[in-house]
Amino acid sequence: MNLGFSRLRKGIKGISPILAVLMMIIVAVAAGLVTYAWVMGYLGFTTTKAGHALQIQSIANDGTDLVVYAQNVGEGTIELDPTGASIAYVNGALKPCSLDPVDGLIPQGTTATLVVAGSAGGLGELVEVRVVTMDGTFTEISGYPGEAAGGVTPIVFLDDNFDRADSSTVGMGWVEIDFDASADAQILDNSLHFETLDDNHQPLVYHSFSAVAAGKINWTFDLDFERTGSEGTYEIFMLLGEDLTSAPPGETQDVAVNIKWGGPNNGFGGHETLGYYDGSTTGVVSVSEQATIEVIADLDAKTFDLTVTGGGPGASVTDIPFVNDVNINTIMIYLNQVNENNFDPLKIDNVSIVEVLP
Q1: CA–CA separation, 97 vs 175, rounded Å?
Q2: What's CA 225's distance to the chain center, in Å?
Q3: Which of 113, 173, 192, 340 is least surrounded by Cβ atoms within 10 Å, i.e. has the fewest?
């Protein structure tokens, strides 16, 4: 009798540590799921189907309506319900909305504007927004809509900080051209990084967005270029234009704004000079290492202002004529005859193209 009771006590002691471990695992998993749900709900979440991907770039409160800007960051064209009846969920409820473009077709890299009538809520009020495509791909975000002066929010045409996993593919709607084995555009350390060994017009990346035919846009980006070797011939181009898909001079007629960084063998008076190209090269200021570039492009006046901050003394030039009188729907960046062994680093970050309100 005593022997049986003793064995039972030993069995109970053996089971207790196992139960304790199982309970700890259950608690840890539950906590992880809660944390994941909270983070994904606050920062936003996107599903993909057959290469399709949509991302909410921003939400705004115009005083009455909720305005949602959703960008096609996948491959091919995304289709939204053109009636606006089955696109937008606000705080879990399906809401009708108006849509631009009205046909519901969003080409790769472009941004759609959704106006959800009467759904703005109060300023500073947290809202949950989900946008669903015709094939079931969806994107969602929780946030606090902002309000610009006069209840109008600027259109965000492109906003990419490249904060994603290292990859040989840039992704997020960027198209790469790097045919030579030594040329590559890639995501590295949360920036757009370039590799090249004196390749001609490579690597090259471009990104399309909704066409701008009038008004002004603000194009900003950070560059980090430094010449560390004896390179004599090198140039890096950063352009805005219409339907750009390959490096000029083949598409010179489609370029509006052409920013250039290079040296004396490429038309500048000194090394590491940033300026612009409009058939001839004009230097503005010496730029080495990190700098922020801001371009205000005026589609009505066909001119742009260029401001350089950091990387040296900085500079500002106004009323630079467009290379050509064209609409703007593409950003392009490419390197020409750059040997990466003589530069460290070669990267671009925080690219933004936003409407300038009147």
Answers
A1: 31
A2: 20
A3: 113
Taking 60 as the threshold, does the pLDDT of residue 201 lie above it? yes
Q: What is the mean pLDDT of residues 31-49?
A: 47
Per residue in 55-85, pLDDT (tens digit) is 888 788 777 788 888 888 888 899 999 999 9
- Tell me whether domains 54-153 and 157-356 share a fold: no
pLDDT given at position 69:
87
Which range among 32-41, 108-117, 124-133, 135-144 shows the weakest confidence by mean pLDDT?
32-41
For 240, the token pair is: 């805005």
Domain 157-356 -> CATH class: mainly beta
Q: Exposed, middle or buried by CB within 10 Å (0-12, 13-18, 19+), for 1?
A: exposed
Using the CB atoms, write b or e for 228-264: b if 16+ within 10 Å: eeebeebbbbbbbbbebeebbeebeebbbbbbbbbbe
**Identity of the residue numbered 121:** G
Residue 145 C-beta-side C-alpha neighbours within 13 Å: 29
Domain coordinates in residue numbering, the chain: 1-32, 54-153, 157-356
- Residue indicated by tokens 């409009």: 278
* pLDDT band for position 343 (cuts 50, 70, 90): very high
Instruction: Classify 54-153 by CATH class.
Output: mainly beta
